[in-house]
Task: inverse folding
């Protein structure tokens, strides 16, 4: 058999086998022909370059199908996960998202609102790791199952809380967490608005940050948030989940926390997170100042007093008279106050009738 004849036969074997089975591997043809894997792989590559077949998947998941839309869609349907460790050099989050979209069936028949949320959340979190972690490698994974879609972004860098401590001259991991939850807190203000985590955690069903010796768990299904101690680890791990049939949309979340100029101008602060040891009373002016640090960047502030039993006169006065006199254009809206907290807040207001609560 001459060389051209052998080439023609192997090409035909590959195409006939794909038509018969729908999708095949290089090993399928190796077993039939008896030639080496390296030799047979060349024929697959030529057919792919000619646009006759398409490779789907990676590593031991690689399959080849005919280059038509129905065949590609059917092959991708079986690939519902993606995992890779990436070198953090010339890495672009949008290209990685497109790669997952192209090589898997994770997004097939997924509602548009869920796909948009995943694209926003994944690219924001991967960009954070690329630009802030100082990690040489980043691990990403995404998986779809009957419950929905989950993705993880893991780095082995400085760690999100340690990064904030060093860049913003904070005293502890607890202060870094408090600042992070406000939004607009970033270690690169010239390039970032600091809104990525703020919005991403609000469009998830669940959102988890693991870094240093802390785990932040946001559960938007149960409207719950906890901070838990964990074994200390270097770097940061972000975990995001959303149901495949979720009715969430991006735009209402952006709208809720945007000012009239459509900038990120509204933040929500849970006051109880600023008291160490789980205490439920806020008495001093210094506690109020800790809460208010950085909030002058916003146009509207929601202070959530859920879980707070009492506040002191100095605490309330620092917020509604002293601090607000410095930033009179900023709106402060307290909510979820018990009767005692509401009374102390009311008596500290410098301009009666301006607030409704």
Result:
């Amino acid at each position: 058999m001459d060389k051209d004849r052998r080439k023609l036969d192997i090409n035909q074997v590959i195409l006939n086998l794909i038509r018969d089975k729908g999708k095949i591997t290089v090993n399928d043809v190796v077993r039939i022909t008896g030639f080496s894997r390296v030799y047979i792989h060349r024929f697959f590559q030529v057919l792919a370059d000619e646009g006759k077949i398409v490779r789907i998947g990676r590593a031991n998941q690689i399959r080849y199908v005919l280059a038509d839309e129905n065949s590609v869609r059917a092959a991708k349907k079986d690939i519902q996960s993606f995992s890779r460790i990436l070198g953090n050099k010339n890495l672009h989050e949008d290209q990685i998202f497109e790669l997952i979209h192209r090589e898997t069936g994770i997004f097939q028949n997924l509602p548009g609102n869920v796909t948009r949320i995943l694209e926003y959340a994944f690219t924001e979190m991967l960009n954070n790791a690329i630009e802030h972690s100082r990690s040489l490698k980043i691990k990403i994974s995404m998986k779809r199952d009957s419950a929905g879609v989950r993705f993880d972004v893991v780095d082995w860098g400085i760690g999100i809380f340690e990064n904030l401590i060093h860049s913003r001259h904070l005293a502890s991991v607890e202060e870094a967490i408090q600042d992070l939850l406000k939004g607009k807190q970033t270690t690169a203000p010239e390039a970032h608005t600091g809104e990525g985590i703020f919005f991403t955690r609000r469009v998830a069903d669940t959102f988890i940050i693991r870094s240093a010796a802390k785990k932040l768990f946001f559960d938007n299904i149960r409207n719950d948030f906890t901070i838990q101690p964990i074994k200390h680890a270097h770097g940061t791990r972000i975990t995001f989940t959303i149901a495949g049939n979720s009715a969430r949309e991006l735009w209402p979340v952006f709208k809720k926390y945007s000012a009239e100029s459509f900038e990120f101008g509204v933040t929500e602060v849970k006051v109880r997170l600023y008291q160490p040891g789980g205490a439920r009373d806020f008495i001093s002016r210094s506690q109020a100042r800790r809460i208010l640090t950085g909030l002058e960047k916003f146009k509207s502030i929601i202070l959530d007093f859920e879980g707070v039993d009492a506040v002191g006169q100095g605490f309330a006065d620092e917020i509604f008279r002293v601090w607000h006199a410095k930033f009179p254009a900023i709106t402060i809206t307290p909510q979820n106050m018990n009767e005692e907290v509401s009374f102390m807040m009311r008596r500290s207001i410098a301009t009666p009738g301006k607030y409704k609560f």
